[in-house]
Automatic annotation (TrEMBL):
<keyword id="KW-0949">S-adenosyl-L-methionine</keyword>
<dbReference type="InterPro" id="IPR058240">
    <property type="entry name" value="rSAM_sf"/>
</dbReference>
<dbReference type="Pfam" id="PF04055">
    <property type="entry name" value="Radical_SAM"/>
</dbReference>
<feature type="binding site">
    <location>
        <position position="204"/>
    </location>
    <ligand>
        <name>S-adenosyl-L-methionine</name>
    </ligand>
</feature>
<keyword id="KW-1015">Disulfide bond</keyword>
<keyword id="KW-0479">Metal-binding</keyword>
<feature type="binding site">
    <location>
        <begin position="172"/>
        <end position="173"/>
    </location>
    <ligand>
        <name>S-adenosyl-L-methionine</name>
    </ligand>
</feature>
<keyword id="KW-0489">Methyltransferase</keyword>
<keyword id="KW-0004">4Fe-4S</keyword>
<comment type="function">
    <text>Specifically methylates position 2 of adenine 2503 in 23S rRNA and position 2 of adenine 37 in tRNAs.</text>
</comment>
<keyword id="KW-0408">Iron</keyword>
<dbReference type="GO" id="GO:0008168">
    <property type="term" value="F:methyltransferase activity"/>
</dbReference>
<keyword id="KW-0819">tRNA processing</keyword>
<feature type="binding site">
    <location>
        <position position="304"/>
    </location>
    <ligand>
        <name>S-adenosyl-L-methionine</name>
    </ligand>
</feature>
<keyword id="KW-0411">Iron-sulfur</keyword>
<feature type="active site" description="Proton acceptor">
    <location>
        <position position="102"/>
    </location>
</feature>
<dbReference type="InterPro" id="IPR048641">
    <property type="entry name" value="RlmN_N"/>
</dbReference>
Length: 360
């Protein structure tokens, strides 16, 4: 009951979205209410998507009062909204403590995908990323992660569309906010929750090795992406300080465990940085590493320009050469279609701009 007890510890109430259905069932039981009330609350939150306790009209007033004494709805104020020519919409939301987070809705031919933030800032320190420039402020609660999808769905409700997939690739390292991420997943995939297919959800990690093992053991159908970005220890440590905590060999071993345990493929994200990690020899070396994964898939990402960093883009022809080398070595590789580049949609760029103006 740690979530439910949060109010006693730091003076704030937990959010209604902080609880999985099982946790609601527990809360309902502890409060002497009939078990079916948990399902009713869940239905109001995720199917009807209401925004106040008063709207829960099939609950007795006494229960609604109790709920409002113990829980809050997540406050997410839209500070800025940027719409790209390609249909991508990026939101900057302010939370109740004035911290800002980013959420992106991307339009694909197969539906709408939402990219969620899991932390305010990030302590991982990847050298090509704007999200980490001012370090980690705090973890988001499960409810604050869930609220981003509910809000996106509420916006799509206006046009009768739905959120069909989710990528946990926004600001933050989800595997450093693991328990909140797992509660988030439970609510997303529950048939009585947002009912999003597990295979339509992808979580991306920079390589927090112990939690790759943990995630493998959860035996979910949720996709795993590893931000690899380099083919060896030396270069990866330069680009991603997390590699000094969890060296390359340990990461690869954890990935092999994941594949053996789940039978699922891993997507390896590789951000191409001009003259840094995008040479043919890097592609050859990467292919050698990934050959041991029969179903490995590499997603090549032309790096987004971050004002505070020095990286430049890889020329188009070199991107294709890199891809060809991987494929010649039987490693499947695609080049990520860029979305929202005209609206600074790369992770953390809007928040960084917002903070320059003195905000948190
Ligand atoms: S890429 Fe992800 S893990 Fe790395 S600093 Fe940025 S938000 Fe953190």
């Amino acid at each position: 009951m740690k979530l439910i007890d949060r109010d006693k510890q730091d003076g704030t109430k937990p959010y209604v979205y902080d609880l999985s259905l099982e946790e609601w069932q527990e809360w309902i039981k502890l409060n002497g209410e009939p078990g079916f009330r948990a399902g009713q609350i869940f239905d109001w939150l995720y199917v009807k998507r209401i925004s106040s306790f008063e709207e829960m009209s099939n609950l007795p007033k006494t229960l609604r009062d109790k709920l409002s004494q113990h829980f809050d709805f997540v406050t997410m104020t839209e500070v800025a909204k940027y719409a790209s020519k390609d249909g991508t919409v990026k939101f900057l939301f302010e939370l109740s403590d004035k911290n800002a987070i980013e959420t992106v809705i991307m339009k694909h031919s197969y539906g709408n995908s939402v990219c969620v933030t899991t932390q305010v800032g990030c302590r991982i320190g990847c050298t090509f990323c704007a999200s980490t420039l001012t370090g980690l402020k705090r973890n988001l609660t499960p409810g604050e992660i869930i609220a981003q999808v509910v809000k996106s769905q509420q916006l799509l409700d206006a046009t009768g569309e739905r959120v069909s997939s989710i990528v946990i690739m926004g600001i933050g390292e989800p595997f450093e906010n693991y328990d909140a991420m797992m509660t988030f997943l439970k609510v997303m995939i529950h048939p009585k929750g947002l009912n999003i297919g597990q295979r339509h959800i992808t979580v991306s990690t920079s390589g927090i090795v112990p939690n790759i093992y943990r995630f493998a053991d959860e035996q979910t159908q949720v996709n795993l992406a590893i931000s690899i970005h380099a083919p060896n220890d030396t270069l990866r440590s330069k680009l991603m300080p997390v590699n000094r905590r969890f060296p390359f060999a340990q990461l690869i071993e954890a990935c092999q465990y994941y594949v053996a345990k789940t039978g699922r493929r891993i997507t390896f994200e590789y951000a191409l940085m001009g003259g840094v990690n995008d040479q043919p020899e890097h592609a050859e070396e990467l292919a050698q590493v990934l050959k041991s994964f029969p179903m490995a898939h590499v997603n090549l990402i032309p790096v987004n320009f971050v004002t505070e960093r020095d990286y430049v883009r890889t020329p188009r022809d070199d991107i294709f050469t890199f891809q060809r080398i991987l494929e010649r070595n039987k490693v499947n590789a695609t080049i990520r279609r860029e979305q929202g580049s005209d609206i600074a949609a790369a992770c953390g760029q809007l928040r960084a701009k917002h903070m320059e103006s003195g905000a948190r």
